[in-house]
Amino acid sequence: MSEEVELQSFILKNGFIWGPEPEIYGGTSGFYTYGPLGKLLKNNIENELRKQLILNKFYEVECPTILPRIVWEASGHYKGFNDLVIKCSKCKKVFRPDKLIEENKGKPEGMSKKEMLEFIQKHHIVCPSCKGRFQQKIEEATLMMKTRIGIDEEAYCRPETATTTYLPFQRYYDFFRKKTPMRVFQIGKAYRNEISPRQNVLRGREFTQAEAQVFLTQEEKNNYKEYEEVKDLKIPLWPYKEQKKGKPKKMSLKNALTKKYLQNKAYAWCLGITYTSLINLGIPENKIRFRQHYPKERAHYALDAWDVEVLTPTYGWVEVCGVHDRGDYDLTQHSIKSGKKLVFEGKKKPHVLEIAYGSDRILLSLINIFLEKEKERIVLRLPSHISPIKVSIMPLVRKDGLPQIAKKIYADLREEFIINYDETGSVGRMYRRMDEKGTPYCITIDYDTKKDNSVTIRERDSMKQVRIKIKDLKETLKKLIKQEIEFEKAGKKFN
Ligand SMILES: [Zn+2]
To answer: How far is the CA of 82 from the centre of ligand 1 (A)?
Structure first.
């Protein structure tokens, strides 16, 4: 089995991600169901991002996911958000010419449509599906999903949450009592009609974004007081000018500004809080890098853009976040199109800095990074604070009153954690089952429990066990999950 197939069957089997849906009708690429464990994990990831953003003074909002065409004309997505496509003249399947060229060892970046066609002819590239010849033209296909409001109003599902966050600008301005910078974020679905969705939820057609926006004046970009809190933070930066020769280097944000890798303090702050949030999700430091876009690689609205990438064993570097300086592009466009004055007092144009996380990508990367195949077990070493099920309770045998004690503990802990109850196998087998689901702690109730009111806690990662009084269990587990105490100091060692 290839590594990717192995990973996909793991997430299917354990109830993380199912699909593509609708599975019973054959499946459509790019659409997935999060199963019970996947949804718990996704909530934990999104709640961690939410917590970080709120700590950094962002307010959460929720905007519509469908908006009429005029919004997307203004934002530039209606005309400019396209993939190039080429059609097979025989089976009519559609492919991306840039991918075809890449697969044939070409470099499609910067090629015109004409040059792409020439490359395809010269290298006799045929349809990967039926070996038929391609049509003699390359077309543009919008990545937006089209729909309809009422009988005939043309509308589109949002291809990003960001644009929908900008629309109530005047409302924010009142809400924040005309004080800048204004910080808001949104966690929600977005849609992209990818021509060839692949790699599971890494490139789905429906996905969840957590996008934070800072509205500020041009002057405030270099007069941003929270910058002081992060300026000495060292993060692995890879400026585009260094990408041909060098590797990413850890440097302080202050140093990056001095070297002109970064243009302003507010943007540096955005990179700083992004790095901290990924560390807080448990992504190892040495698997994170910030890669700056080349000027020609940037989206139509961006003055500066850095991808935040995470190194995974199966997919290599995965972009899990993008940080963009969108300048005054968005609000200027919406001002023109709507005829409304979307400005700060004194007619200052609002600039926007954006941090755009993809929560599906973070989720799959985390599973991929922390999944380990050992000699005798498969273990998902997720950090305990984001693990879907925190604790499993298991009586040693199904008799002599042990299940009754176990169920009482279960009922008590359930108020605090997402927990599991299992009495359907040998203890060893029950441990393995929970190791695979990423559950950091298992509690066993045995005959000694009846004598001394204590139970065994077993730690997933080390497989070590300690003995602890039932009355101390809840508080100890809380501390263990938050990693406030070391496991071996949590109770009395034995075995
Ligand atoms: Zn074909």
So the answer is: 22
